[in-house]
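Entry 14. Two folds queued back to back today. First construct below, sequence then structure tokens.
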Amino acid sequence: MTVLPDSQKSLSIDEVMVAADRFMPPETAYGTLGLRKDAVWLHIPISVSSQGDGLWVLDIDYPVLNRIDVYLTHDKTVVEKARLGSLQPYGQRSIRGRSLSFGLKLKAGSHYDLYLRVESKGALILPITLSKPSEFHANALAEQMLQGLLTGLALCLLVYSLAQWFTLGEHLYLKYAILVCGSLLFSLLQFGVGAQYVWHGNSWMELHVAGLSALIAATGSFLFIEQALAGPDVNPWISRLMKAGAGFTVFFALCFSFDLIDVYFVTAIISTLGLAPALLGMPGAISRARRGESVGIYFLLAWAVYFVTTAILIEVIKGRVGVSFWTMHSFQFGATFDMLVFMRVLGLRTKALHTAVKHATRERDSLDSLAHTDPLTGLPNRRRLNSSMAEAIRHAGPGKIVAVYMLDLDGFKQINDRYGHDVGDELLIAVAARLQANVRHSDVISRLGGDEFVVMSTGLNSARQAAELGEKLIKAFNDPFALTEHSCRIGLTIGYALAPLDAGDAISLLRRADAAMYAGKNEGKHCVRRGDGSESLHQPLLG
């Protein structure tokens, strides 16, 4: 293959055919002519063997080339011609596929000259093959399957991240979706799947998707990396630069969409800002990696792959690295790898957020427990008792009596003085356990301090049922308490009041119950009294 530049874009096929001496071998690497603004003519001589006649397929597997004029000549006469390119309506293509292809009818034993006039706003990458239809279809099917797998994976990641953002409200998923969207659009354009399935014949998309996809990916990178690596060890100015970079890329994307800037200006912008997110995020990632955090390690790994694969594609675009399966797909493979790694980063970030929420919840519950629970027995304290009583009294009524019992331990002080506070504390814990074993699950037991306890029972049918519960508690203390080193016997004096029969608020109930309890203490202890001035409902027990 030899090339002839057409800087004025004015040469005709007749002028080109008589200018054979002006064609020169390309100075660039195999399959690429680099970035050029002019038109270029290619000359490819073809010799057909005696067994090679019939239909052949000319395939140029770089679908973003804007215009390719194909001329097949024999003895200085054009025998076939066609126009290919991304700006040609998809329905007018002779072979409606992903790549730019055209069928050539060649005679056995003949010699032809194939001329291609190529013009495009971007790199002139020309992976040209001439093959029989069976070989062409086999290669096209393999590439189609590869693009289906990679595109499907990117779509799944995009849909998943958007669903997570919508469900959880976590903006990091939206920023990841922007990044994935940019990479996906680039692949759809670069490998022809977009024109094939998404934007049939839309010339605006063909001319703008390359620049927009790069700017969208850069925007997502700025935003995603800034939030994912945010922390106390990251300087605030880096975060501000990241957000400013995202703002600039959005601005340039809008300008490019309205053709206020051209693709060459966008290329310069991406060359300047494309690596900025990784460079700005590098210190934070290194700091995290040194601390052994997986997030930092994953970012460094993703960037290493990104730098290598992007450098390969850039060198192909500039014409310094030849075209092959691996060089043409290097960026796509690298972008797919990065998307998967960043999804792993998202998972770690979400896990960290959930862990932080659980920790905060435990801290809140612990503080709530300290504020509303007796630290020795684990029973509700006076604060929680007051709120529980207020709620219960609000629903009290006939057939829904609330009984509040004030309990005082008989003989506790003597045991505490004789054996010490440790034994006294152990005995209080045992008392709490025995009270819990002798009341209903819905009843509330509270320790007010010292050896004073309160029991609140709700939903009682009658005053008699309340009296029976008091008697049950008295009898529960007939048995001694078996402690670690001692066996202790103590009694119980109870005063109680009923809502709404005796009082209609928590303070009045507690006051009446407390007065009844002290009356019982004065009358001999180990008894139960109701705080309405009535006589004892239970005679003092001996022992």
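Second construct, same run, same settings:
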Amino acid sequence: MSKAEFGLLFLKDKLKDIPFQVWEYDYLQDDMHLLHSSGRENNTPPSFHEINNTESPYKVIKHEKYVSIILFYPEGNQVHVSIFDSSTILSIKEIPYLHHFFYVSQMKKTLQIKETELTNLVDSVRSITSSLDLEVVLGNIIQNALNVIPATDAGFLLLYDPILDRLIPKAAIGFNDNIYNFKVRVGESITGKVFEDGKGRILNSKDEIFKEMDRHSISDDNYHHITSAAYKPEAAICVAVSIEGVRIGAMIIHQWKRKKVMTEHDLRLLEGFAGQTAIAIQNAQYYSEAQNKITVITELSEELKVKNNQLQKRHQVHESLTNISLENKGLETIIFEFNQMIGQPVSFYNALENKFYLYDSNLTPDFTMHELKELFSTSPKPFHFERSSPHVKKFYLYPIYNGIVFLGCFMINVDDAISEADRITLEQGSSILALELIKKQTVTEYYYRKTHDQFQELLTLQDADQLLQIGKEIGLNTSSYWVMAIFQITSYTDLQLLEIEIHQLASEIKNVFPSSAKMIHGLNDQVILLFTISKPDLFMPIQKDIQSIKKLWDNSKRPFFRVGISSTYKGLENIKKCYDEATKTLSYLASRDRMEIMRYEDIGLNQLFINQSNTEIERFIDDVFSPFWSDYERNKELEETLLLYISTNRSATQTAKKLHIHINTFYQRIKKIEDLLQLKLNDHEDSLKIQLACHLRTTYTQVLH
């Protein structure tokens, strides 16, 4: 016996001879039918429009001549019991039993509905995935969406077009062709907003639909297109069409006439179907793209055979480059292999050593180091470049970087744009070349560290015999004349770039002095080297070459450097003295912020003040000249007269002549100077003090005033 029959038996037992009717309402089908009637022939169905808005599973309504008991069940279904007696026959405790007796039968119907929904969903998914033709898939989607939600009558699908930045209708049912003019912006109207935020929407009245369209700023044109394309709907559900979290479109289905209230369950069903829809669309798109590619591949098959042969050849050359690097055959061999691989003249600029590797050693470089750095100062990307002087030449310039450090650049002579195959070859081969450059730099740094350690050992040795022995072991002529030079770069923004600049400076020095420069090495911001010469007067040509190096370096707009050079000494035992003098000369230049080349003996009298602090020197100058500065406008010409007088070796005639004043005027000024400074120029100590102060006043740049 079914639960429904238990319910009827229960009613018959309780009501005895009182007439009653039991009606059943199917919410989804909007269908009602009489389940049982006793003692009454009038079978007019009751109203089933009520919705259960409370948590109670039933509702009792007393009428004038009968009592209604409405039993509520899932999915909107109802059982309506009409007892034709003015009093409530069933007690408040008995009604839940009655609700329970009918519950199982209602759940069976609910399960049948779910099974039908699932069958419809599976059949719809099969339908839209049964074809890989994009047009067929799009045409099937809306029809199957209506099958998934049977209470709907029409709908349309929009896909996002990134070029137009609009959602474009692709398929529709229940609309005329005006629907294809309905193209909305992201965020516009219902469909545009659902696409924007990915949140599905249920709208259960005309007012809701049109308010939502207006709230999301539907344009006048789109409003006209959508309202002229079909009837005004009674309800709608709109969902986003997404795949792997990326929205590709939106789908909306309509009810022309009210069949049922759309629920969250309907929304979830449609969202599940929309997910499968996205996969079907993507598969069809992939298939379409694959078909197009197959067509293209077929047309290019012969060309691909030729390209394949070229790629195989380049692969062999790539392996050759790797082998060359592993065998330490050097950059020259690698650049030669690039020429073989690319088949066009390839040259390379090594920025670490400021050295060009040309495809023809008899040629001169087409670019300078400064030009290449300028060309890549704004962007590190390769590009084509045309030079018109002295005649037109086209190049493809391909830089190599290690982080922000510019390692070098390929310079390829081309007739036209470089081919894709050659570009890929450069891209693959450049990594090998970058490793080769970094490896070479690492070896150089190791050599510098080793040289520095040897140099420090020579400086610290106290025993003369041991010093001579170690000098001979490292290849130094211990009886030669020696001069030490220290190059210092002081202006830099990045330690890695400074390391490269020091490396380049050391390389240029070695190129200019291949034999006379000994123990050259870079350390922090300095390049330190010993010069060996057979006679003291042979250092003058070396100093001129150093000046030439500095001029070229400064003209290339690289960070300026200063050079401190020691005096010339015979014998390796004086190496510590050479180092101290070169260091003091650098200190002297630094105290005056001068980026110059200077020898220790050229410091002259200033050697006495190298170890004096800036504060002490400024205090001494201030002690002598401060009386002038107390009223500088008035005493300015007195200070100028004194400085000129001392610089002319105290010649009154020359001073007066240069100042364009009478000799008597000059003597008057001298008297005023002596009174103001409270010194006597004829006094030996005062004269020495004045001369020293004037000397520092004119040579020391960090002076007050």
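Quick look at the second one. The longest strand covers residues 246-255. Residues 701-705 have pLDDT under 50 and may be disordered.
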